[in-house]
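Tutorial, part two.
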Amino acid sequence: MGELHVTEEIGLPMISAASDFHHDMIKDLVDRAVKTGRQFQSTQTGWVHYHPNGDSTHSHQAIPLYENALFILSLFRSRLVQQVQEAKCLLNQMLHFQSPSTHFNSGNFPVWMHQYPEAGDYANGLKMSAPLIHMLAQFGGVIGHELKSALECSLTRLLEYFLAIDQSQLNYVLKIRLNAALIALGKLLKKEQWIQEGESKMSPLALEETCIYSSSQLAELMVSLQLMDPHLETSFGKSLKAFVQQIWHRTTCSYAGPVLKERQDGFEPQFNLLDLILGYNQGLFSKRIESASITHLQGALVFPPHLFSLEKAFPFVIEGKYGPHSWLSLQTETTAISLMDWNSVEGPTEKYITPLRILWGSSILTHSLIAFGRIGTQVSCLTASSTHLELVYTLDAHFAKEERDLQEEIHLYFDASPQTQVTLNGLKGTVFALNDSLEILTEGKKTHSLKFELIEGDGDFIGHLALGNRPSQQRSVKTELQAYDWHVFLRAARRSSQCAIKLSIFL
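Running the prediction step on this input gives:
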């Protein structure tokens, strides 16, 4: 289905007034969501067809309920008559795929339409609540009495399903979404009991944990709170705003908190809903959101009341704990550094966990460097300032002499964009020794200098520089056959069981 060029608008209420500039940014987000939906929409079914593992060279066969709910919300928010009519038609059809009352998952929605009536995924059902509640709250007056009643009934059944399950099975983010939805829908349907239950269960959660160390989960948290608290004025909302203000780097328009689940898309960090929400708040979107992505459908969840100041004077440092691990985020106007001590004997086994990430550049192009050790390596920070970092890697006591992969003790990746070059002691090269200088140049200027030193134990180490891709790379590198990173790794040809390497980075 092609784009609709309809100029007539209908009088739909906005959530709140916003400046013309921010109103245009909201319109841009909604337009991108509609355009993205059109790109994945089937001319035969009218639904968005998408699967994260789908081959881009073939049509997607799966029909996801959540992405279609976002597409429907974006059509409503376009305020164009023909698109609003289309949204009403799709919404009416989608509600029929809610698990029926005769099924043991009665009230929940399946992840994929072909799974109906099976609907056992808690996360998907609770994610569905946000776009559906926004449709009811913002467009209940224009969708007609019959469809409005059906939507109210659908949302009631959805939340009753989650009230009936063992809620200890829900993670922190899903508990917040459920309680926020109870409060929001309770107000819309005048269900005082739901409001009271949501508020009573929300309070201890706010005290238990006021932030999630993941950009995507932070975004989900903000979307949930906006359902019940559009301006984030509750104590929980204020705590969230205070945290977000400190982990958002304005120069690169990037998340700069602990790196636990961050992904890379080509040369730059992969954008997600948090980039859309905070880009709107800052009044500046990073250029990387211009890339085609199904993520743009989530722009339908960004509303004007999210506006709050992201201004904080540089430089500054914030610190925190992730379980037993200490972390800090250090920001200057040009650079954002995320550090985490990883002193567990297991080491960071999850491929997205990164004890060190450095961001620099701008909203036009954001550069990044990450560093980690192999499984079993413990990482601690000796020095952290805006000009100098020192990390100590205490190597795993087991040295696998016959296993080459396990000889690679420390790994660094930094983007291999055309603006980035690398030299060894000022010259081109691919092999280096301990105490040699590795220099990173950005647009012809040296921005970082790195050096490895043996500070404990004995051994022979060889440094290698090659093109590659960091573990968190999301591009289809196997099919594209492209390397987006420079890969620096330190290999041990021989070493003692007790060994420690110091990595110094000069910025």
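The chain is about 35% helix and 25% strand. In part three we will examine how such features are distributed along the chain.
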